[in-house]
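User: Predict dTDP-glucose 4,6-dehydratase's structure from this.
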Amino acid sequence: MQKSILITGGAGFIGSHVVRLFVTKYPEYKIVNLDALTYAGNLENLTDIEHSSNYVFEKVNILEPEKLKEIFQKHAITDVIHLAAESHVDRSILSPMDFIYTNIIGTVNLLQTAKDFWKDNLSAHRFHHVSTDEVYGTLGNEGFFTETTAYSPNSPYSASKASSDHFVRAYGETYGIPFVITNCSNNYGPNHFPEKLIPLFINNIINNKPLPVYGKGENTRDWLYVIDHARAIDTVFHKAANHATYNVGGFNEWKNLDLVKLLIRLMDEKLGRPSGTSEALITYVKDRPGHDLRYAIDATKINKELGWSPSVTFEEGLSATIDWYLANTEWLQHVTSGNYQKYYEEQYAVR
Ligand code: NAD
Ligand code: TYD
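Assistant:
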């Protein structure tokens, strides 16, 4: 059976890298990118591959089950890689319902559509759910998240992703949907919407705007280059056993303030500013409510069982990311006009 893979959220940050990898590496597959093009979806992320003969884009919302059914039929979908989601913690604090609709109900719509469409031969198919390490909640100063760590989400975003993971498992156990789940740490890289820490700070350093560090900047994240995440999804999708879950991470923990200082050092150098100039932009602002202290992934299982490991160091990845933003000012201008300004005001003006 020829593979016809539905990649949801393929116009977003991580999704666009997954789409590109699959379209270019597997010319024998049909890749159907399904995306509602919310504020975070952008077809400019895919201009280099949009005319590939094995690629199709469908503007569809996962909250519309009838349209999902049509897409499964039209393209004879054999597999799903599900990335469509509301993905930003701060927005989930402002509007939790959007996260409940898309991340939970949207995921169940997709599971239900796949279950009905694949019913005659379920075991020939695969539903790969792309999730986050934030479902595990927070760590103290020690320890790592493993695949057996109990779920303990603290934000509306992570609670909605945890719920979607549970529904994927339930559809696997109850109805026999062959699923795999990956829980990945914080991604960074080209095409990242400038609401998350790294692209927001890159944009603000370019424009000499304040860098709003939440609390004391002591929270810690484990950062992974987005292309390495796409490689991990490729690996798990093709090699993992049914009903397996894998944590994906870079063994690359950074306290926010140390990361901001590294970013400033690299950017001042690239922008020809005297070293450390942009440190004056650091502004400590009110902390995020429910702010998880530390995320750290133990990625031993995917490394030992499937042979995946990150391909770039943090400094290489960060340097390539900054170069991408400096070379793609038009992309940055497009995504920071209009509604972005409104969001920025709401999030940061009275912080
Ligand atoms: P993103 O916000 O950049 O992109 C999300 C995409 O989903 C956008 O293209 C958007 O248009 C689309 N979308 C949103 N709602 C939709 C709907 N109702 N119907 C159809 N399409 C819809 O997100 P991202 O950072 O690329 O994350 C992708 C996935 O990976 C998410 O599931 C997220 O939870 C997960 N994840 C993200 C990270 C990270 O660091 N960004 C880490 C681990 C896991
Ligand atoms: P973010 O990129 O939003 O990812 P997540 O919350 O999903 O980990 O934030 C990464 C870290 O940076 C997190 O500890 C919150 C912090 N942060 C700031 O200090 N200032 C900001 O403006 C943003 C967006 C994040």
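The first helix runs from residue 13 to 25.
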